[in-house]
Every structure is written in structure tokens, then in C-alpha cells.
Amino acid sequence: MTTQSIQQRIASVSERLTPTERRIAREVLDDPTLLAFGTVSDLAGRVGTSRPSIVRFATKLGFEGYTDLQGWARDGVSERLSSPSARIRRQREATTPVANEIEAAVHKALETLDPDRLHRLASPLVRAPNLWILSGETSRAGAHVLHSGLAMVRPGVHLVEEHDLGRDLSNASEGDAAVVFDFARYRKSSTVAARALVGLGVRLVAITDGPLSPLASLTDLWCELTVPAVGPFDSSLPAVAASELLVHEVVAQLGDEARDRIDRLEQIWNATDTFLGDDAGA
Length: 282
Known about the structure:
- By secondary structure, the chain is of the alpha/beta class.
- The chain has two domains: 6-81, Arc Repressor Mutant, subunit A (Orthogonal Bundle), CATH 1.10.10; 102-269, Rossmann fold.
- The protein has helices at residues 6-13, 19-30, 32-37, 40-47, 51-60, 66-81, 84-93, 98-112, 115-122, 124-127, 140-151, 165-169, 188-199, 237-254, 256-271; strands at 131-135, 157-159, 177-181, 203-208, 222-224, 229-230, 233-234.
- The strands form two sheets. A five-stranded parallel sheet has the order 2-1-3-4-5, sandwiched between helices. The protein has a two-stranded antiparallel sheet with strand order 6-7.
- A hairpin with a 2-residue loop joins strand 6 and strand 7.
- Helix 2 packs across helix 5.
- The radius of gyration is 21 Å and the shape is elongated.
- Mean pLDDT is 84; it is low at 77-88.
């Protein structure tokens, strides 16, 4: 059985996929049974493309052909179909109240960010000399939560506004780390900035929505969140939940260093009467 998931394989070639191949990838990601048990004609019919296009997609993923890809997929499909995230996906596709969709998305974020993944995503954020946080407009709430939490437990944390990208990121250098939040429709500025940071030797952590995201091809440290629509906008709650978990994990890895920094911050707050205190009601 392969050690890579279909999501990881697609992410590794996402920038080289043609528009047709991206449609194939979406079908494959949405319905693993189609890839594992359907014929090449079934998949071509679902996507509205030709059999040769399906075969080219399989070879681009590193397989000899569709039969090779299908055999690989069947090895792991049973486990994927029984996973909680697959069940949540099926519930989301049903007609349900928006509150249910938000709840499902937050639960999926919590499942995706298991202890091992959280440890891997947080590790570059602990000791990097500088930490750069970037986001698109609809994911800004998560970026603010991450910045607020990490700035209180370690130095050198920068929230970069889109109009200040060039000025701020000119200070980035090898050994730094960056967290980039971005979801479909993907902002050009976020992708361009992320690519430039990787070119400088900055370790990139991407909070995005799947292997077809342009960010997923730039790093092996990426987290897939489901982001449901709430009215005309995307929900901010999955990104906020991911940020809070990352802050908690960074604090755990910093240990006493984080505690001592928070104690110093508390002393400054007391000295400057930052908070109203117990007599606020008076």
C-alpha cells in the first residue's frame, strides 16, 4: 500500500494540471468510490471529458495508466470510506441548515488537526527568528487569532497586510517561517508572496482548502479545512479553530519560555493599568 494519499499526489502536481485535469481531480477527491471502482469511461462521463484525458491525468500523478491508478486507489479506499471525515462530507452534501454545515466544518477541522499533524505544523513556528502571517480577506479572522496568540508567547510575529506585502516581506530571510491562509478563489497576492517566501528559504505552513490549492504545491506542511458558505461569505470559524489549536501547540512546545513571557506581559499590563480590574462595575 502506498504511503501517499490521493490528496498528497494531486497536491504535488496541482500547478501542472490543465483545467480538464483539475475537473478530474475534483471528481476524484469528492467521490473516492468512483476512482476505486468505476471504469475509465465512468470517470470520463462524470467529468465530461475523453478517455485519453483520464489516462493522461493518471500518468501525471505518477502511474503507468488508469488501471495502475485504480489498483492503487482500491488499496486504501475502505479505510477512507469509513473515516469520520468522509461521513461528514456526505452529511454536508445533504440539504441541511447552515448551522449544521458550520458545526460539521469545525468538527472536521478538529479531526484533521490531530496531535501528530498539529505537532508538525507548529514546529516551524516555535524557533524561527521571524514569523510572517498572511491571509486573504475572508480568512483574515483566523490570521488575526493566530497573530494575537503567538505574539504574546514569542517575539518576531508579524501580521502582513496585503498592501504592505513588498515592504514587510523584504525583511524575510532564510530560517524564518510563514503561515499563509487562503481558500478558493485564491488570491494572487497570497500565492505570489508564498512562492517568493519559499524561494528565500522561509518554511511555509499553509492553511487552505485542499490539494488543488496553489499553496499545497509549495509545501508539505499544509492543512485542509472545509469552509462552508454563510450567506455570501465563507465561514471564518474553521480557520479560527485551526489557529487556536496551533497557538496551543506552540505554547506547549515552548514550555517554560512561553509561561515566562506571559508573566512579563502580565506585569506590564498591571503596571500600565491595562484592564479595569475588579472594581469595573463601580
